[in-house]
Amino acid sequence: MNGNRVIELNKIYKRFYEGKPNELEILHGIDLTVNKGEFISIVGASGSGKSTLMNIIGALDRPSDGSYILDGVDVCAAEDNELSHIRNRQIGFVFQTYNLIPRNSALKNVELPMMYARLRKSERKRKAEELLEMVGMADRMTHNPDELSGGQKQRVAIARALANDPSIILADEPTGALDSKTGRMIMDLFHKLHEERGITIILITHSPELAEETERVLTLMDGQIIGEARGKSYDLREHSTGTL
Amino acid sequence: MILENILQALFEIKANKMRSFLTMLGIVIGISSVIMIMTIGDSINNSVNDLLKSYGMSPAVAIVIQKDMANLEDSDNRDEYARPRRNTDLMDEELFKDVQENFSDRIDGIVLSDYYDGMASVGSKGDDVSIEGFNAQGDTKNIVNGRSFTASEYKDAKKVVLISQQLANKMFGSAEEAVGSPLDINLGNKPVTFVVVGVYGKSAGGVMSALVGEDNRSVYMPLKTVEELNLSGSPYDVGRYNYFMINIKPGTDLDAMCSDLSTFINAKYYANNDTYKVSVEPTDIDLSALTYIKLGIAAIAAISLLVGGINIMNIMIVSVTERTREIGTRKALGATPGEIRMQFLLESLVICLIGSFIGIGLGIAGGLGASSLMGVRATPSVTAIVVSVVFSMAFGLFFGYYPAKKASRLDPIEALRYE
Ligand SMILES: Nc1ncnc2c1ncn2[C@@H]1O[C@H](COP(=O)(O)OP(=O)(O)O)[C@@H](O)[C@H]1O
Ligand SMILES: [Mg+2]
Fold first, then answer.
1. ipTM of the complex
2. Atom of ligand 1 at shortest distance to CA of A46?
3. Do B332 and A58 touch (CB under 8 A)?
4. Do A112 and B4 touch (CB under 8 A)?
5. How far apart are the CA of B361 and the centre of ligand 1, in A?
6. What is the domain partition of chain B in residue ranges?
7. CA nearest B122: which of B160, B167, B78, B63?
8. Confidence band (pLDDT; 50, 70, 90) for B213?
9. Which end of chain B is more exposed for a tag (fewer CB within 10 A), N or C?
10. Per-chain mean pLDDT for chain A
11. Does any ligand 1 atom lie closer than 6 A to the CB of residue A14?
């Protein structure tokens, strides 16, 4: 076992409605290893099982079969509360639809994971402000989600994903609802996090160009990984729009 | 964390003012009704003493009855079988003095009264009046003009009277005119002239007067005056009494006082009496109309609390469904099922508490209002308030548990996929 491996999926199967007549197998034995600090992308047609795979990687769901070791912990054997703890400390989710808590300010949204981690209020606030500043949202901290644009919401969501210094960021089509310019800014933010903080990032995207920018591109089709390619190198400085 | 959840709950309640208000409505109505009845009930209980006094009644009465009778009611039905009462069967000043000395910590006064047995009327219009005498301790009339009787008037059986405002208006035009004027009262066609020394007003106001009846046909005079008028008709000596009424000091346990007093009197004065003894009993006051009102409000309270509780459960379930995505997100961010359950449980708890605070406020206001309408001294019921708060908390937890449990069990995957 290589100590550098942060994610090890072994023959992962996922079936819905298990044991019922309408049983549906979505993932058919996925093998995947991700090293610490890697930035990989997963592409594939709609319905190919990308989100299902991502949910398993993020410990939101358990596989029907197979083994999953996350940072040395057997996720399949873990209890519900343990999974909550893993999601809270190790994983940062970024969703296509942002999923900010409505009526809660950007600041409160970013504080949320730290509240579940039982950080002191003052500590939470300080950290949340710092993170919002980092994603360029310093002047919008007290705004509620419905007062923010899509790109701004996604930046708050990224700040929230970073709250407890997770080792892994899981982003499920984070630019899917954004125009290409805003999507570009979000993508640059991921590059920056990857380079400056060495965070492991798994990105699901429909855009081949964005996928190309990552170190490794996995193609999923009908619940199986059918291809793996190396991405082109990407220089953040060359492309940076400077408006992060 | 709990404080955090409480703040979050307050936040949600504020963000959905209308929904929160509707959720609370049942609790508010229920609790305010409960507080209101309890306040009115307590006020009446506290004020029964005052109330009785203001009508010339006392909370307890001591009366000579047959020895083989358990109480006054029995004796009313069986009196005919006994030998007639003699002077020596009755009570006198010596006994009263003894009682007052021995029960000075509980008894405030001994009221003696007597009625003129025959028909009496005043003036040319011949208004029927009832003539009543009382001793100084029984003087509780609310004098609006003139004065009450002096010590010498009581002692010397002076022919002085107190009349009602209504009678004064009718006979003299006004209370001012009445005071000091002579008043002829026909006692069995024999006119006797009295002097009006005072005019009394309403004894109690509002609903209570309607329940107990307003007194305005009584003409009051010193006890001895009545006794002397009655001399011809009465078989007993002056200063011998069949009964006396007892005013008690605040905080006295009425039933205990009654039984202690009857033991005392019977042991000391009636041990050797072959036929008679003294029974001391609380005065019955008919508050049944109030009891019905209280029962009605209690029914409303019970129904609204039940409906309120179900309402809370309902709206919490709607709220959980509405916030399915939020719940999924919170779980993705690391909330444990227990933390989600706590959040929703505290939300329903806080709603119930706010509802009960509003209800308590309205209930006290309503109770005080109703009490003053009835003319009794109002005291918000502390027990009722404490019970309400505890009860509404239990309610919030009970009816909030199912929705909270439902929220905590949501599958995060399903919840995040929820549209
Ligand atoms: N919780 C679920 N219950 C039933 N079917 C599901 C569930 N989640 C996903 N699916 C089905 O699994 C398939 C893959 O879904 P998903 O992983 O969301 O695909 P992608 O993200 O690649 O578009 C789809 O056909 C979807 O309908
Ligand atoms: Mg998807």
1. 0.94
2. 23
3. yes
4. no
5. 53
6. 2-52+288-417, 58-109+241-284, 113-239
7. B167
8. low
9. C
10. 92
11. no
Residues in chain B whose Cβ is within 8 Å of chain A: 1, 4, 11-12, 15, 325-326, 328-339, 412-413, 416
| Residue range B73-78: mean pLDDT, rounded | 63
Instruction: Give B2 to chain A, closest Cα distance, Å.
Output: 11
Domains and CATH numbers, chain A: 36-60+80-239 (3.40.50.300)
pTM exceeding 0.80: no
Please state the rounded mean pLDDT for residues A59-65: 95
Per residue in B269-289, pLDDT (tens digit) is: 998 888 889 989 887 666 666
B253, burial (CB in 10 Å: exposed 0-12, middle 13-18, buried 19+): exposed
- Structural contact between residues A94 and A161, judged by C-beta atoms closer than 8 angstroms: yes
Q: What is the pLDDT of residues B283-330, one digit of tens each?
A: 766 666 667 777 887 788 888 888 888 888 998 999 899 999 999 999
- Regarding the domain delimited by B58-109+241-284, which CATH topology (the fold level of the hierarchy) does it fall under? Alpha-Beta Plaits (3.30.70)
| Token pair belonging to B37 | 């009845």
